[in-house]
Design a protein that fits this description.
Layout (H helix, E strand, L loop, with lengths): L6 H9 L6 H12 L6 H14 L4 E5 L5 H9 L5 E6 L2 H13 L6 E5 L2 H6 L5 E6 L6 H8 L3 E10 L8 H8 L6 H13 L4 E6 L5 E6 L2
Parallel strand pairs: 1-2, 1-4, 2-3, 4-5
Antiparallel strand pairs: 5-7, 6-7
Helix pairs in contact: 3-4, 8-9
This protein binds S-adenosylmethionine (SAM).
S-adenosylmethionine binds next to helix 4, strand 2 and helix 6.
């Protein structure tokens, strides 16, 4: 079910999805069973497609949880690619390590426990994709830090721009200029920053809403 799409549109999206690989299906089920806020299979499949379209080799994630979104990205990266997963919670990354190892993607993954912002500073760009799924109040800061480290044509993707920690109603108010919560204010601040050049942005209503921005300085 989706709070973003009507039931009919949600069913149509699902009908257009092929079966997930066994490991991705297991991770989807794990996320649901644990009530873990993953992007879900529809948005995940789209992330993988974006990585392929961008010919991505290097992806940085602000907020990886147990590695679900990363597993979709990893599927599109070459074996010598570079995917950095970050999370405050070491046990999430232990689970991510186990899943991504079993999926055969350990070769291209680095797992970094702690603050994603500190991890980001410890790596050099250029990045092909930066994925932002951390605290909503820090989305704009993540973007500011990412920009100098992006290649021309890189993608910056942010989750939860239509639902999640901030409800659709809260986000609508925030986009209209009256944010009822810090999370909604953070998302609105972010969306405002990527609306115009040097970004070209589309909001994609899959999962809880992805903001997809192409950077060209
Ligand atoms: C929404 S979940 C990530 C889900 C993941 N991207 C997925 O779809 O599979 C957010 C995760 O980011 C972590 N997190 C939030 N802010 C963070 C930060 N500044 N540094 C590191 N981890 C962070 C949280 O611990 C949580 O596990």
């Amino acid at each position: 079910m989706s709070d973003v799409l009507t039931d009919a549109a949600f069913d149509a999206v699902r009908a257009g999805n092929p079966d997930q690989s066994p490991i991705l299906a297991e991770m989807t089920e794990y996320g649901h069973d644990e009530h873990f806020p993953i992007v879900g299979p529809d948005a995940g499949r789209f992330l993988r497609l974006l990585a392929r379209l961008a010919d991505a080799r290097r992806v940085f994630e602000f907020g990886s949880g147990f590695g679900y979104s990363a597993a979709w990205f990893a599927d599109a990266l070459p074996a010598d690619g570079d995917l950095v997963l970050t999370d405050f919670d070491e046990s999430n990354l232990d689970r991510a390590t186990e899943f991504l190892d079993r999926a055969g993607y350990a070769d291209r993954c680095t797992f970094e426990a702690g603050d994603a912002f500190e991890s980001f500073e410890s790596h050099d760009g250029p990045w092909d994709i930066v994925f932002i799924d951390c605290q909503k109040t820090r989305y704009a800061d993540a973007l500011d830090r990412a920009v100098p480290e992006l290649r021309d044509g890189a993608l910056v993707v942010a989750d939860n721009v239509l639902d999640g920690p901030a409800s659709p109603d809260e986000l609508r108010q925030a986009f209209a200029g009256t944010a009822p919560s810090d999370a909604a204010a953070g998302i609105a601040e972010y969306v405002e920053k990527v609306r115009d050049a040097p970004f070209e942005t589309a909001i994609v209503p899959l999962g809880e809403g992805l903001s997809v921005s192409r950077y060209s300085p």
